[in-house]
Design goal:
By secondary structure, the protein is mostly helical. The chain has two domains: 63 residues, Homeodomain-like (Arc Repressor Mutant, subunit A); 143 residues, Tetracycline Repressor, domain 2 (Orthogonal Bundle), CATH 1.10.357.10. Helix 5 packs across helix 11. It is built from eleven helices and no strands. It is elongated and about 55 Å long. The longest helix has 35 residues.
């Protein structure tokens, strides 16, 4: 049976854990905004702490340094995008339609979260080239093709000769440049997704 003293300690511990969790949420939110808006090199730990409304030392209770905070931010952003892809691709049949959904998800995510795609997927390996976690995030790009092509689909044998992770990195690079061009030329994003979907289907020999 708990005494009043023990019960009070448990309550205090619970409040401390909750406060720490809330602080981490604020730090992550501030880091995301500043890294995207100001860039990695122009963002300091004290800037993140100030933006989050906490003391400078509090930053180091949650992150070893700025690089650790950035890698955490990149991982959060990637997880968010992958979750969107999984939800949007669920129940979608047909290779070309799945490409279209994948591209549209990328496009919406990139336009709704300006600057986030580059910051989350390309910057980690530039900022931390010797960090295995950064390269694992970069290699995560190679998993997107498997979301668009299910092995159980008819015709997948046609692409068995390809390294799908390599193709996926190429597709992501193509999409990045195509999206930049489409924004600059004010092209229709739906047409962009349609054209890229058809191009990839034909290139992989999946068009029916």
């Amino acid at each position: 049976m708990l005494t009043n003293c023990h019960h009070g300690i448990i309550v205090l511990v619970g409040l401390a854990v909750k406060a720490s969790s809330n602080t981490l949420v604020r730090l992550r939110s501030s880091a995301r905004e500043l890294f995207v808006r100001e860039g990695y090199h122009n963002t300091r730990p004290q800037d993140i702490a100030k933006h989050a409304g906490v003391a400078n030392g509090t930053f180091y209770l949650h992150f070893k340094d700025k690089k650790a905070a950035f890698l955490d931010f990149a991982q959060q952003a990637q997880t968010e995008l992958v979750d969107c892809l999984k939800v949007n691709l669920d129940g979608v049949e047909g290779h070309r339609e799945r490409w279209r959904v994948l591209f549209n998800t990328f496009i919406r995510f990139g336009t709704e979260h300006s600057g986030l795609l580059n910051a989350a997927f390309l910057d980690p390996v530039l900022i931390a080239p010797d960090d295995d976690d950064a390269w694992q995030m970069y290699d995560g790009l190679g998993k997107f093709v498997s979301l668009a092509i299910k092995q159980k689909y008819d015709g997948v044998a046609v692409v068995a000769e390809y390294n799908l992770e390599l193709i996926s990195h190429g597709i992501c690079g193509m999409l990045r440049h195509a999206l930049t061009y489409a924004v600059r030329k004010e092209l229709d994003f739906e047409k962009l997704a349609d054209d890229l979907s058809l191009f990839i289907d034909r290139g992989l020999g999946l068009e029916t």
